[in-house]
Amino acid sequence: MKKSGFALIPVMLWLSLFLVVPMLIVVGISFMQRDTDGNLIYTFSLDAYKIFFDSLYLGIYWDTIVLSVATTVICLLLSYPLAYYIARSGPRRQTWGLALITIPFWINFLIRTYAWVLLLRTQGVVNSLFMNLGWISEPMQMLYTKGAVLLGMVYTFIPFMVLPIYVAIEQMDRRLLEAASDLGASPWRSFWHITLPQTKSGITTGAVLVYVSTTGMFVVTDILGGAKSSMISNIIQTQFLGARNWPFGAALSVIFVITSFILIALFNKAMTSRYETVKEGRV
Amino acid sequence: MRTRRSPWLGLHSLLMIIFIYVPILFIILFSFNDSRLSAEWRGFTLDWYVSLFDNDHVMDALENSLIVAVISTLAATLLGTLAAIAVRKVTRRLKLSMNGLMYLPIVIPDIIMGLSLLVLFRLLGVETGKTTIIIAHITFSMSYVYVVVSSRLAGMGKQLEEAAQDLGASPWQTFRHVTLPQITPGIISGALIAFTMSLDDFMVSFFVSGPSSTTLPIYIYGQVKRGISPEINALCTILILVSVTLIFLAQYMLNRGKGQKKQKMLPF
Q1: Using the 8-state DSSP alphabet, how is residue A191 labeled?
Q2: What percent of chain A has pLDDT over 70?
Q3: Contact A177 B3 (CB under 8 A)
Q4: Is the pLDDT of residue A11 over 90?
Q5: For B91-104, how does the pLDDT look when each residue is reduced to its tens digit (9 = 90+)?
Q6: I want to staple B86 with a disulfide (CB 3.0 to 4.6 A). Which of A7, A105, A222, A247 is the partner?
Q7: Which residues cross the membrane (chain B) (predicted)?
Q8: Is residue A31 within 8 Å of A45, Cβ to Cβ?
Q9: Does ipTM top 0.90?
Q10: Residue contact A110–B202, C-beta within 8 A
């Protein structure tokens, strides 16, 4: 099959036409204007970006970043011990543990978000339970709050964090741990100086996946946050499907992708520099 | 090596598994609850499943979802498998750029993929509907097929193919009788993943669907925004069951065959 390189052509054409080109068009549109009917005016303009610097949208984007960072941090703190436990279990428990954390990954996030509506609504499971127990006399308002959105995001994206960290812990060189313990390092010290630095790649992958996915997820805010709590992804979605201000929606998308890249780069750098200093003063 | 673990670690893990599963279990439980709105158990019923099958909107959405999933799976499996096989024989540089291109749909946020496809279709004057959803699904599904089939190909090594060629088999004979039978489980596994992804996709479909091409997840979204309903619980339960079964089947297929390195089904 000498000429098999030709077999790549259909796939490359497909991905160029339906993935690369559309994204380049979106970048192009972000530098255009629209007329009052929502049609594009094909002249260069920075107007779409200027709208973003309105305090309203800056505020929404700031809220989105805070929410995404909070989701990422909480997911990391909850996931690491879980991934660690599964990766260090015996083979049988490991298989089960892995299956248990992989399954939710394949259950539609729409369904998993909806589950929280059942639990959190005024006549929902939590309120009924607490009232029957006599802990509260009036139902609590839990749905359509920022807390509900944060909970929903953490819940939705936890598998994205557990799986890469699990892989990293499973693949790390265990002999280093034995060496450290032979040399008298405490478990906590070996964790801090060996396990954590060695599983850095898993943490980074997980953090990137969770951060980017949270920022792009308009469904959770829609369903658990109600109309009041808009995130940047809700604004983007409205520009393309409702308001028909494509240049503005495109500009927001570009800003979303670029700020994600910057944050990811900063995060990567912070992780690397921390471990560089650790390496010098190793155990 | 089993290290000593603090009991807190086990307790934390147990609580996490409960946290992950309890909400899902409540959907399943309420789909059998004999009450429209109550959060309390009022007895077992199958009414909600029955009324699901009497609901024309649900049946239309199901039909759309299945049409989209079947066609996009076939196309994505063909394209993804072709690429995974072909990429082994090309230069390292081309291989790297191909891998980069193939991972794009996996790493790009769904919302960006959805809206850029919407823009493309609008500019080309293409009416959004089932066809555009199918195109979108092929685009992200073939990456997953590519990844799964590639890992199967990497796991099998090149010795058997080389042996066949040394014994005088033509490239086509080698492919037909040596390569293909070995990667078939990988192809089936990739196809099952593609089918599940298509059936489950909401974000991308939401942007490129038309008024008459509502798929099941889009239908669920519309209903959920209006509030809870027992029919939706039933529909969600069925979808959960279908997705989980398909994924277990995919995992099983991936590990079938002798001498294969055991692979874990991870989505990336």
Answers
A1: I
A2: 94
A3: yes
A4: yes
A5: 889 889 898 899 88
A6: A7
A7: 12-32, 66-88, 100-125, 131-149, 232-254
A8: yes
A9: no
A10: yes
Are A194 and A178 in contact, with CB atoms under 8 Å apart?
no
Sign of CA dihedral B222, B225, B229, B232: positive
Q: What is the pLDDT of residues A118-144, one digit of tens each?
A: 999 888 888 888 988 889 888 888 889
The amino acid that residue B116 corresponds to is S
User: If you measure CA to CA, which chain A residue comes closest to B217?
Assistant: A110
Band of residue B145 on the pLDDT scale cut at 50, 70, 90: very high
CATH topology of domain B55-254: MetI-like fold (1.10.3720)
Residue B264 has pLDDT above 90, yes or no: no
Which residue segments constitute the domains of chain A, with CATH numbers given? 49-280 (1.10.3720.10)
**Closest in A22, A90, A187 to B117, CB measured:** A22
CA atoms of B89 and B96, how far apart (whole Å): 12
In sequence order, which ranges of A121-245 are alpha helices (DSSP H)? 125-132, 146-171, 175-182, 187-190, 196-198, 200-216, 218-220, 232-241
Both tokens of B227, joined, read 């509030």
Residue B147: partners with Cβ closer than 8 Å, 6 or more residues away: B102, B106, B190, B268
Contacts of A139 (CB under 8 A, 6+ apart): A122, A123, A127, A131
- What is the C-alpha separation between B239 and B224, in angstroms, rounded? 15
Instruction: Tell me how crowded residue A259 is: count the other CB atoms within 10 A of its CB.
Output: 16
CA distance B174 to B106: 32
**Domain locations in chain B as residue ranges:** 7-45, 55-254
Q: Mutate which of A6, A18, A109 to disrupt the B interface (most B C-beta within 10 Å)?
A: A18
Here the tokens at position B175 are 């492919």
Helices (H) and strands (E) counted in chain B, each on its own, are 12, 0
Q: Which residues in chain A have their CB less than 8 angstroms from residue B175's CB?
A: 1
Q: How confident is the model over B173-177, as a mean pLDDT? A: 89
Which of B16, B115, B135 minimises the CB distance to A236? B115
Element (H, E) at B41: none
Burial class from Cβ neighbours inside 10 Å (0-12, 13-18, 19+) for residue B23 reads buried
SS3 of B45, please? coil
Q: How confident is the model at residue B267 (pLDDT cuts 50, 70, 90)?
A: very low
Average pLDDT over residues B149-175: 86
Cα four-point dihedral sign B229, B233, B238, B244: positive
